[in-house]
Structures are given as C-alpha cells and as structure tokens.
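Page 42, continued from yesterday. The earlier attempt failed because a stray header line got pasted into the input along with the sequence. Redoing it now with the clean sequence only.
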Amino acid sequence: MSRINTNVQSLIAQRVLGQNNSSLNTSLERLSTGLRINRGKDDPAGLIASENLKKDLTGINAAIANGERADQVINIAEGGLNEVSNLLNELQGLLTASANAAGLSTAEKEANQLQIDSILQTIDSISGQTSFQGTKLLNGNLEYSTSSINAGVTDFRINGAKFTGSSVAVIANVTQSAQTGRVFLSTNGNIAFSGGATSNIFSIEVSGALGSREISFQSGATVNDIANAINQFTDLTGVEATASGTGVRLDSSEFGGQNFVSVQSTGENGLANAGTGTYTYNATDQATVVAGSAATFAATSTNATRDAGQDIGASINGNIATGNGRNLNVNTDFLNVEITLSNTASQTLGSITAFNITGGGADFQLAGNVDIGGRVAIGIEDLSSRKLGNSSLGFLDELGAGRAFNVVTSSANELATAQKIVSKSIEQISQTRGRLGAFQKNVIGSTIRSLGVAAENTAAANSVIADADFASETAALSRSQVLVAATQNTLQLANQNPQQALQLLG
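This time it went through. Structure tokens are written below.
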C-alpha cells in the first residue's frame, strides 16, 4: 500500500524520536544536577518527602549550631567562676591568718582587710563583666524571676525551669517532717548525789555528728549550768542544749538523718533525785518524751541513749523530691529547684506554695522543632559578694571593711562565722560549676552528638529519594543516545518512502 498524503511511518518515527529525546534530556539533566527529582513531575510523592526531609535537616543543622553556641556561653561562664573560686580560696587563707590574733599587729590586720576588700571588689567585677555578646552571665541576668515567696521558705535556688504560660507555681507537699536528733537529759532539779556515791562528780559524754566531748558537773549544778556547759562545745560536737523544766533537751544543731545526739554517763553517777536519766522523744512528735525510755544514771556506766534526725520527705509539683535535712531538691526536664524550708514549715505536713516562677533563665533551642520539648533551660544566679552565702550565716559582702565580719574588729566567734560564710560561698560556686559542667557535658554535648547522627541519617534518607544514581543514569543516557540515533535513521527512511510512490507514475 503506497500513500503520500499521510506518512504514517514518519509520524510514528517522530513520536518515538520525541520520546527518546525526552528520555535523553532527562538523563542529561539528572547527571548535570546530580538529582533524580528536579521538578514535581519527576516524582510527586518523592518531591514531598524530599522537601520534608530537607526541612528537618535544615532545623537539625541549626540546632547543632545552637548547641555549639551554648557550649561557648557555658565556657565563658565557667572561666569567670573558676577565677571567683580561686579568689575565695585566697580569702579563706586570709581569714585563717587573721584569726591568729595574738601574733598579728593591728597594721597587719588592716593590711589583710585591704586584701579582703580587694578580693570582694574583684568578685563583684567578675560577676558584672563576664558576658557573651553583651549578655551578662554571672550578675543575675540569667537568674529566674519569682513572686509570692512563701514565708516558710528560707532559701531557694532555681537551676532550670520550662513552662508555656506566664508563670508556674512551685508547690511542695510535705509528707514527712524534718527532725533533729533529740534526747532529754533529766536531773530532776539541781544535781544531788546519794549517800552511797563515792564521787560527787556527774560526768557524761555528749556526741554528735561533729564529734564528742566529756563534760563533768559537781553537786548543785543547775539545768542551766548543764545546758551552758554543753553549748560551749557545740562547734565541736554538733549538739545544742536547752534548759527545759527539770532537765536539759539536747538537739543536733542540724536537721536530717546524718545528724544525731548521743548521751552516755562515764563516771560515778549515783544521783539522789528520782527520775534521773536520758529519755528519747516520740518519733512523730518531738515535743513528747517517751515514757519508760529512760537510761538511768544509777550504774557506774550505762549504754548511750542515741537519737538520729530525720530528713524531710516531700514531692514538688507531683515529682518525688530528694530530702536532706530541711532541704528539698527535684530535678526533672521541666523543673530543677532546691528549696530550704523553715523549721516550722519543714515539720508541718501538708502542701505549701513555695513561690511562683515568672520568667528569666537561659533557654537554648537544641532541636529542629521550636517547642517546649526541644528547649533546654538553665538558670545562673547572681554570684556577686552580696549574694554568696545564705540568710542564716550571712553574706560574703559582710566581710568588707566596717561590716559585721571584718577581720580588724571581729571577735574569734565572728571570724569563725566569717569562715563558714566563705566555705558556703565556695560550696555555692563549686555547685554552680558542677551544674554547668554537667549541663555542658550531658545535655549540650550529648545533644550535639545525637543531632549529628540525626543529620547524617536524615541526609542519607533524602539522598535515597532525591539524588541521582549515576550508574543507572549513565546507562539510561547511553540507551537513550542509541535509541535517538536509531530513531533518527528510521525517520529518514520513513520520509523516503513516499518518493517510491512516484515510480508508479512511470
């Protein structure tokens, strides 16, 4: 059959040539860009998946950069804290030297005070100048702001808090009271001895968490005399005494299970008064002596009467808190606080709203998705001299010239308190450094490493979907090139077929 009006074979060849050229162009484009998906028609579903993965990868890479920036912020804060720690240790030595009152002249004490003043000024300077891109790090700028602080809270520290509203209430529910170790020593009036006593000396050994001391009393000593004698050694024993009725109440100077009171007779103690001895208190009511619990002083030596304190038990915002004496601590992803309750509050079972956190702190975005789950928070309190220490001991700035604990005019007891303030300040700086170090290592460092793995896996997943397989595409390119060449030859032959019909016209 010979037709010249419609060259069907040529049309077929043209169509196939167009298809082969399209395949050739697709292979060339993929090999040129390295991508399998260059536009939506290449793979609509694959394009959507690839764009979502690229979005995730962009967020992850930004979070890694945030983590590295956070690491630098903590490094700068750590540098300032390290220098403050060195200055506090130097201050500790100056206090010890200044306590050598008999060996120092007034001029030497004044020289030591000048050094102390210089140290305090330098600590304040470091606190005010340590910064990252203009953001102060140690002056309380990154401390959490609070409101409605309960009168039953004596001290608190907010190490980290995350919340979505304008504020969050910190509620402690006390389930177990804090207690001191407590023993009642009954003399039933002034010390008196029975006729059979071979020695008119009443001797006891008082022991506590800090040590022990043997104390002796003569006939006629009152309960006030006994209490005063025991209190002279409180710094050595950790035991405080209070005259109470017909005897003396002995308490550990601190609350908690690590503190205790122990009383034992150590000599000829044939006391004449009835009802003498040492008594324990009710485990749940420290105001009530347990009847029949007496260890009498009739014998030459008796077993010690010992009572340990008790740590507070509580939950904070529904999370079980760790109790140590009157101190509570809870550490979760959303709330990390330390609270010290007053004597009354720590011994009162029930709920107490400690304070409200209204803002502040340092937030770092360490996840691709911007939400509370991807945010980490840490607080850095004001570390100036007026903030180091605590309300019960005093604060570091009180060691300055003319203040309560200056080394020129302070007594030995005041210098002892000053050294306790410095020790507490060193403890606070060390705890802050440890907390920042843990945050840097376990939160920032681990998160950066985890994000790095996530970035690798996300990029690999996107590569499988969107990247061109060069081995496959070069094979397809070669195939398309051969097919295009063959189709072109076929088209040439198809275009020559109508000319053969002219032969029929002879």
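Notes: The longest strand covers residues 350-360.
Reminder to self: strip header lines before submitting.
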